[in-house]
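Render this sequence as a predicted structure.
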Amino acid sequence: MDSFRDQRPRGSGLPVPNPCVSFWQQTTRSFAYLNSHQYTPVPAVSKYVIIGSGLSGALTAFELIKGGVAAADIVIFEAREAASGASSRNAGHQLGADAFRGFQVYQELHGKEQALKIVENERLVFERVSDFVQKYGVQCDFNPTTTFDVCLTQEFADFNARSFKEYQEAGGDVSHVKFYEGKEAQRVTRVHNAIAAYEWPAGSIHPAKLAQFLFSQSINDGARLFTHCPVISVAPSVSLAADELLWEISTPRGTTIASTVIHCTNAFAPHLIPELSSFITTNRVQAHAFVPPASLNGANLLQSTMSLRHTLKHFYSVSQRRADGVIILGSSRESPNISQEALHSRLIPDDSFFNEEVRHDAMNNFQTCFPECEPKKLRHGEGLFHAWTGIIAMTPDSVPLVGKIEGREGQWICAGFNGHGMARIFTCAPGLVKLILGGSWEDTGLPECFRMTEKRLERSQNGVLKSVF
């Protein structure tokens, strides 16, 4: 169904204007600010302009206000409806999804010290989200639980064992990680073909509800969100009256002049920052919603989220929601069971459609691991009922871009999350705000390798199609 689309050139440009509606969006259509200021002309001036209304943009606005910025001085521009990008199109991504797994790859890319900080940062994000949800009473279906790395092949069992050993020997904390093997792994995960499994504290969440809560707070304080208002360009202002460099943010509904511009556009950042065109690569990912049979509903719900892994990059996420029992299934971006055409189609930054081959592959893997979910065993109303896609950003060094944009005074970025935004944003966005308000990199607490610098971009002249994830 997408063969004609596969001929489109790879690039990030602007998001397509007519995306499909994800499960997360289906269940939040009553959000009051979904199409905020849809037809309103943009203001002529604003001190702060945030481009992008995903979780990073929402949290950046919230943190700026918390840091003392007047909410009325903040404008957010969104190309589509509020929170319509990857934040509301994921697979209910786990918070704290990596306790050690990526360490050996991160170490090869960034060295031992940075690799330790990257993994530790992920654990910190889970704690930050948990504290935030409790502090503000956020109704976002947050489920603090555990997650399993389920090893379905000996190859991945060996890989994870090496990562665990190397992380531990490097001084990483593994006291919260449990290991199971053979029949014990099959019992605790309920995956009959599991070879081994690792378990640690993690959580799942309704990502759209979290982003919408943040926007509600900021808008109620006085910030303004302009939806269906794509930014066409950001250029130096021709005004000579100002003592500081100002930027003209051009949109179809007018131009806003601002001194501070914050790019929270993730995969679409190269549209306004061309120097990132060879650094950020778009990937289209796919997720699915599944109504479970009796063996996985009621008191039989899966108590933990899990990652069903054949190799480091060939895996499928599984998360069963406490609120309604729906199982959210991720898809593999490197499955050997789908055609080259389907693999290539993931490079097309178009989230208005899904791929049937990818859907079939994800369902086959899930039903192999949970045979009670085979189609012939399901009643009418059970089984797969929705599939959707989202566009994520891959970077050559597998970590995000955070900080000031050199050569563009007053412009900042928080993007490039490698499909791992839920596990990064709650430290990256607050860290960026600290920098914007005059703090040092040390104040952010972020790994130094997250920092956007010209030197970092020069080290990776050509973008890649892969990532640690």
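Summary. Residues 307 and 317 are 4 Å apart (CA to CA). Confidence is low (pLDDT under 50) at residues 1-11.
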